[in-house]
Amino acid sequence: MRKRPRADELAVAEDRLARENDAVANPPMLNPEVAREHADRLRANVERALRGKPDVVRRAVETLIARGHLLLEDVPGVGKTTLAHALARSIDAEFRRVQFTSDLLPGDLLGTSMPEIRDGIPTGNFAFQPGPIFANIVLADEINRASPKTQSALLEAMSDNSVSVDGVTRRLPEPFFVVATQNPLEHHGTHPLPESQLDRFMISTGIGYPDPEDEAAVLREDPAHTSLPNLNPVVTMAQVIAMQSTAERIKFDESLVSYLLAIVHQSRDHEALELGVSPRAAISLRRAAQARALVDGRDYCIPEDVRDLAVDVLSHRVVVDPRSGRARGGEETAWVMREILERIPVPL
User: Fold this and answer.
1) Is 102 within 8 Å of 143 (Cβ atoms)?
2) 188 exposed, middle or buried (CB, 10 Å; 0-12, 13-18, 19+)?
3) Are 109 and 76 in contact (CB under 8 A)?
4) CATH number attached to the domain at 250-348
5) Does domain 29-221+229-246 have CATH number 3.40.50.300?
6) Fold match between 29-221+229-246 and 250-348?
7) Per-residue H/E/C for the chain
């Protein structure tokens, strides 16, 4: 017979739940140096599983702190899924992986209402059963294999942190972070993400092949099978939320606002682009720059924060004009964005 919890145990559990809810609702402001220590600890833990890719790990941590979402687009086998798993294991939060396929339905992702049964007898009522989207970190693996209808089910979740099912809007947990992967080389049975979906991802980046020395270490140690299963959380959910709230208050000078807007306006007027940068993209770049400053232990942004992040934040949101004679694709839009950055003087 299962032992019933004592009154004092219930009181302790209720007190812990109350403190966790308070940490989510009223996150404390962190000293930038303390926030940097949290971020360094998180990055170092993830790098135990993904060797030789510190810049990619840094981008993932910056995206998380900026309350954004991350799209990893690269060839198979370079560590996209490993990165997402390692990041989830490094945070004391709930993690769900969803393998996107052509037969995946929106209800499989969001949840659905099921008949309520008590003592084996239907009550006539329906109870909502939440789907895997109701987690802190969600890995949308091979997102471009799902149908456009299922892909679009993510739009509200990624922009509003909520899900509407059967006319009822339900909030998603905090923090909420989507890491999506896709293979750019496959075409059969895939559905490219539309511009509206791509615009929900704060950063899109690849991982690339490792350097020869790092690849040799991977061959010898196989960290995805040795280090990854043994990763333990190094930051709590409350600490992540505190870093996110602190990043939102990082100083962003008016000169940086003008610099960022110059980049945005240049993308809209560039002769090679059919679709320029949206206001949402501009806000994403500012938030990413603030997160980068916090990861560096600063309470203010500098021009390099904007410049170094501009390609990863903006290039997947613009569209090449076919009349320009340029090829369409991520490499071409990244090249155009670098050209724009070279045209605009960096504020001193």
Assistant:
1) no
2) exposed
3) no
4) 1.10.8.80
5) yes
6) no
7) CCCCCCHHHHHHHHHHHHHHHHHHHCCCCCCHHHHHHHHHHHHHHHHCCCCCCHHHHHHHHHHHHCCCCEEEECCCCCCHHHHHHHHHHCEECCEEEEECCCCCCHHHHHEEEEEEEECCEEEEEEEEEECCCCCCEEEEECHHHCCHHHHHCHHHHHHHCEEEECCEEEECCCCCEEEEEECCCCCCCCCCCCHHHHCCCCEEECCCCCCHHHHHHHHHHCHHHHCHHHCCCCEEHHHHHHHHHHHCCCECCHHHHHHHHHHHHHHHHCCCEEECCCHHHHHHHHHHHHHHHHHCCCCECCHHHHHHHHHHHHHHHCEECHHHCCCCCHHHHHHHHHHHHHHCCCCC
Condensed to tens digits (0 to 9), the pLDDT of residues 111-166 reads: 988 887 787 777 778 888 899 999 999 999 999 888 888 988 888 899 899 998 88
Residue 188 pLDDT: 63
Q: Give the whole-angstrom CA distance, residue 204 versus residue 289.
A: 15
- Residue 322's contacts (CB-CB under 8 Å, 6 or more residues apart) are 274, 328
Higher pLDDT among residues 190 and 104, named by residue: 104
The full set of domain ranges for the chain reads 29-221+229-246, 250-348
- Rounded to 10°, the helix 254-269/279-295 angle is 140
Tell me how crowded residue 288 is: count the other CB atoms within 10 A of its CB.
27
List beta partners, residue 138: 96, 178
Burial 7-35 (b: 16+ CB within 10 A, else e): eeeeeeeeeeeeeeeebeeebeebebeeb
Give pLDDT tens digits for 31-40: 989 999 999 9
The mean predicted confidence, pLDDT, of the chain is: 86
